[in-house]
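tool=predict chain=A
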Amino acid sequence: MDRRIPEALSTSRGKPAGVISDVGMTGDCNSVIGMVKDEPLGRFLRRIASGKFEAAVRPATLCAIAVETDDATGLAARVAAVRLGGGLEEARPAFWERVSQFFGIDSIRGDIRPPPNHREVDMLKRDHISFSRRRLLAAASATAAVGLLGRAAPAMAKAPMLNTQAPPFYRFKLGSIEATVVTDGPLSIGDPKNTFRGPTPDELGKMMTDHFLPANNVVLDQNVLVINTGDKLAVFETGMSSVKRTPLMGRLAANLKLAGIDPTDIDAVIPTHAHVDHIGGIMAEDGSRNYPNAQIHISQLDLEFWTDEKRMGAPGEDSSLAAKKNLLPNRERIVLYKDGQEVLPGVQAMHMPGHTVGHTCFVINSGGKSLFLTGDLMHHVILIENPRMQVAFDTDPKQGVETRIKAMDMLASQRMATLVYHLPWPGLGHFAKRGDGFHFEPGPMQMVQ
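tool=predict ok
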């Protein structure tokens, strides 16, 4: 490979000049090298001259920006537009219009000259030049380095990749309550045909790909709600820290700390039911208590059902094992809730069975605002759109369908704000009726208070 800096990239005065492309090409090109902030142009030229690019699929023409360097610093200082090849005006007319406005030129179709107060820049005056992808990119990079929104912009900053995500929590107000959604991490449950019953595997695959999701793997979020009423600090659901299947899950206790919430300050742990991904984080992986000062609120029906020895060897055995690991060691701290009961001030329980015998949703009210916690009434967007599909995890799949449709009908008619535990982060939004199914419209996230 020729690693020399192309001759076309030298100015008439012998100082280095670069060419920055608007990627306005008639040919096919996928690889682009960008310039970074305060990068000496000579170094940039050496970098693109030694770059490796795929061979051109077909000839390409280029619209570009020539960069002149500052005498003292060797950094990019001025720009001038260049047209290489014909036909680019039609391909990117908006680009040429911005260039002509910037340089005060009536028509861009003739020779391009900088205004009188600009020093002369080598314009690479060639009417028709055909480049291979490799030759083209040895002399061009993206306009990420140079802005054309009215004036030249400084090159982009060079910085190390951080390899970190945004903080794993979202905070908002519900009346006088401070609410925080905290993730426990993603939960992968595999092929949709193992979870959703009714449609064929091909039909399920199309439902998934219609949402730009892989056809062979359902991934659920775990959106845990924490509320601070000013008097009580409560967490709804607990994730899977004691039974985590991958390092990506079981992160709730650690993520609470990142959100400024000390797990030892939690007064109440309130799972909607006793499945493994809802009670599996009451205890830590090492057997210690994640919430040592909290009471645990659970339905008596679910407590008795999932700690019954008859569940061993039956479907849902993993939830039975999780119940024994997380609930039984805390029996003295368990508080049983019933349908219609106010579990905490402003928090009302609603028994909605089918998914489990004691599955319970909650309505949180404060200052004229309400939020409905669905638990596992619905797990996924394709189940919301096709609510009559049965779910393999439901203790009573037929009852699960009836309860799901009844709940979404109510939520849509009352336009009640909802948090869905397994929908994409943070799971907040509203339900609307759509055809034979429903639609979940995510709510806007308020990032500034």
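The chain has two domains: 7-137, 169-442. The chain has eleven helices and 21 strands.
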